[in-house]
Amino acid sequence: MSAVPVLSALYRYPVKSMRGESLDASPVGPHGLPYDRMWMVADEGGRFVTGRTHPELVLVSARPGPAGVTLSAPGRDELFVPNSAFTEAWPTTVWGSEFPAWRGAAAADAWVSAYLGSRLRFMWIGAATARRVKTDSDVPLTFADGYPLLLIGQASLDALSARLGRPLAMARFRPNLVVSGAEAFAEDSWKRIRIGGAIFRIAKPCERCVFTTVDPDTGHKALDQEPLRTLAKFRKAPDGVLFGQNVIAEGETELVVGMPVEVLD
User: Which of 60, 88, 156, 204 is least enclosed by beta carbons within 10 angstroms?
Assistant: First the structure.
């Protein structure tokens, strides 16, 4: 291990449960990374739909920009969805959290419905999210499960891969920040870290679910429930099977892959 941990990878996921984007650099703030989980697939009632029940979502790529997002998937024509197409405010639910978002993009509704084989809606968080982190009412949140950022140590993934007996892609676990150069699961003991000009507070461990059993390259769910089954053998806690740490940035900065990560406490 190196003497100083470094930020070794940055990822964002413009549409919840769809394929992520690897970044070399990005602004970051209390809201997380720009465009991260700004769009989402939902049912007719506004309840979130994810790769837990529709694993083929991981094969859809999303390229975001100031005016909207472009969707592409195997066997489907590419579709640009302008933010101006979202004309109707609609109550939305993510993990029991209810908040307003936007729907009305008919072409996008039809695109995701045809791809997934059921009647669905494509939602936008809006120009400014009304949602907040449950435990931190001043921290804005998009369509992410519960926190703006997820951090995982590369050594932690390597340790899980070694137990499983085969290499696992980090994409299965959908982090925003990957840190290399620390011991396996060192992030469990961190309280605050500094990257660039901002301090990041470790909020709580991330509870993992069946989504980790979806192969990000094929969109198939593992019949043997791996790697969740192996993870449960040594990472199970009263709150669930834990892997990675939810993080909140306490300021704004520019992140660049390769930056040192200073553990403050």
Answer: 88
pLDDT tens digits, one per residue of 29-48: 999 999 999 999 999 999 99
What dotted CATH number matches 6-32+144-263? Answer: 2.40.33.20
Confidence of residue 1 (pLDDT cuts 50, 70, 90): very low
**Start-end ranges of CATH 2.40.33.20 in the chain?**
6-32+144-263
- CB 211, CB 173: distance < 8 Å: no
Please, how many CA atoms are within 13 Å of residue 87, restricted to the half-sphere of its CB?
6
In the chain, the percentage of residues whose pLDDT exceeds 70 is 99
pLDDT of 158 > 70? The answer is yes
Region 224-245 average pLDDT: 97
Question: Which tokens go with 222?
Answer: 């593992």
Residue (of 100, 97, 102) closest to 85 by Cα position: 102
Strands 177-180, 253-256: parallel, antiparallel or unpaired by DSSP? unpaired
Residue 222 DSSP class: P
Q: Which amino acid is at 17?
A: S
Q: What is the pTM of this model?
A: 0.96
